[in-house]
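Trying the structure run again after the queue cleared.
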Amino acid sequence: MSVMFWFDPAGSGRCGAPFAVAQVAVSAAGSDRNAMAFANRNSPISPIPHAIVLCRTLTGLATVRALRRVGLSVQALVLADRDLVRYTRLARIVEVPPEARHGEALIEFLLRLAPRADGDRPMLVPTSDEHALLLSEFAATLDPHFRIWNNRFADLSHIVSKEHLYAIAEGLGLPTVPGIVEPTPEQLQAWSAVHAAPYLLKPFYVGVPRSSLQQKNQYFDTREALLDYVHRNGAQAVIVQRWINGGDGYVFDCYGLCDSAGHVVQMATHRRWRQNEPDCGATSFGEIPSGLPPERDDLLITQTQTLLGGLRYHGIFGVEWLLERDTGRFYLIDFNARPFSSVGHLVDCGLNLPALAYRELAGCLPPGLPLRPPLRHLWWIDIYRDLQTFRQLREAGRLGFRQWIVSTLRCRSWAYLDLRDPLPAIVCAKRLLRHLVDLALSRSKRRAGRGGYPASQDATT
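Done. Tokens:
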């Protein structure tokens, strides 16, 4: 079956430079064995795409889907070997070789994709802090060929690097978690004598080159464990923070878009009910809007606006806040200067930030947009990561099977499952099933005394 439809992304054809009308063919999926061929064969054909997405796992796939939702043609640059975005039929897939995935090599690769003739420039969308910084650093080289957000590299570095972000927030009177930046073992020993365990260790941003910590957070329940880690690995490009009594259900996000003048165009709130890792990782089960009482939701929005007023940021953002259970204060945690894994959840609720960002860069935002648009209330789940979270929470006695099932059945928005684009979810399900089979076999061998558990594997990458 084939369905044809036409869409003018400008709405009236009068938005900025002339737009080509996108023609899309949606066809039934082929077999999983031919998944890669199917994805490439059915990608939208456009000499110059409206957008090029630098894909990193779920965030890249969700951004591609958001742009295609409004009929924009997309090129998806695959920057990880197991990234499921390569199975989407909603974009032209471009495999980036490993040697061209970082730094100036990636910039040179992008320039080879640049339009050769005069015409509308495609929007470049980073989906990681590393690539957001890279595009900002080489803005002068890229700007003649692409539409990009106009953040100065020095300013964006201060926003993304947590130590500078917290200093800016403190100057604006916003609460931040007590911490120490890049401490020596001696400095950490003195600081931790005043601030009791537990602790979180965080890199300035995920993927920062100088840090030995390549994950988002690492939790330490004792002072001795923290001191031992820093003694062995150092604390380059990391910040050590006191653990605040919050965790799953008490971490909130403000998602939105700022225009080139740094003004917020639209925004919404989000609640992380479960995370992977539990209490300090990425969302695996979330809610939009946040579900907070109106006055608390207003405070979350107000604090985010205060922070943005001191940054002059341009682009999609996700600002993370931790609600301390004991005091009711919102502490600033992080600033994501690009789309985020829940961007598809937000689209399902009624706010399409990637599409809004395209219109802003093209100079065709409609006037009079409400700061907080009315949204459909939805629960969202990344079932593959949430299964891992459930296993950990169940072993800790914090979540029962019935409670988990009931929460899962609430969901009407899903990370990978999309009937308009089924292959990424199918491939992920096969990987997950293979992992579960391996896990069951390993447990059987362990009970028989012949081996241990296999190393944990993320089925989504």
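DSSP finds 15 helices and 17 strands in the chain. Worth checking whether this holds up in the mutant runs.
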